[in-house]
Amino acid sequence: MSRDSPAHELTVALFCYNQANFVADAIAALYSALPATSELLIFDDHSSDGSVSIITKSLREEPQPRLFFNESNRGLIPNLNTALEVAKGRYIFFAAADDLIYPQMLTRCLNLLRKYPEAGLCSTMSDQIDEQGRLLGRIESGMPSLTDDYLSPSQSLRFLMRNDSWFMGNVAVYRADALRRIDGFRPELMSFSDGFNCRLLALKFGACFIPEALGAWRLMASGYAASTARDRERSLTIGNTAIALMNEEFADYFPASYSRRWLKRYLFHSATSADQQALVLRNRLSKLGRLAVYMKLFWALFWYRPFDVYPAVHKRLLGIFRRSS
Hints:
Helix content: 40-55%
Largest sheet: 10 strands, mixed
Radius of gyration: 19 Å
């Protein structure tokens, strides 16, 4: 069977490492959302908490998954690249064992990608849940369109300059050959590898977007992105590496004006990630504590991103309006 066989239009790859508390729910959510033309890959990165046993008990006969149980811990990025290498689908979705997708997410993305085959990816908006699965609200990512639509590379660049990323990696379906053409995920970018790829694919091929929350990202202090953001040295390494890639290997797609702006936004996020997480978990802060965090965030916004004050305030007010409507 060829890699682009129509029998496997979509490859779904699930990744687990010591997530026994969540993986059964993640598998159930995938089965409820899988289109008929899908294949399922499941990776366990040498878990020690019984995840493998839970995975095997959660499987169904159709589709019969391909299992990759590593004999040693390889790390997420090598597993992502292995999935991309062995995938048979034209499109590929990477799922984390602690996140959830909603039943229509994959079908909606595939329908839009079929309509715009030139697109490098399709993403949606996302809800946010806590460790117990309680809804915390919708993540206030950018909204480049009010309807299901395709953004050309030039449209993508305009939005990235003005608001930056609208991508949520937990609800993004990639065109597999486009992802291979940019050499997959770069280990040196660590937790930003998917964010970098989403931007590059949008600027190279264009991107589809669905302005509806079709999945849920679990907010955890031990998560890959959160732990990286707390490590100042690692964050600076990622920022410098990404800037070098934007300004050298991929300078044809990333204008210098954007890469400079992106770095300031990234440093702001790294410096304030703990405060932003505290605001999401409102029950852990008093009113006075929330006010102090907001003041700190606005000071950091003026310091790192004065050019973003208006878009940031607009996005915050839009989020408040969404929650009240």
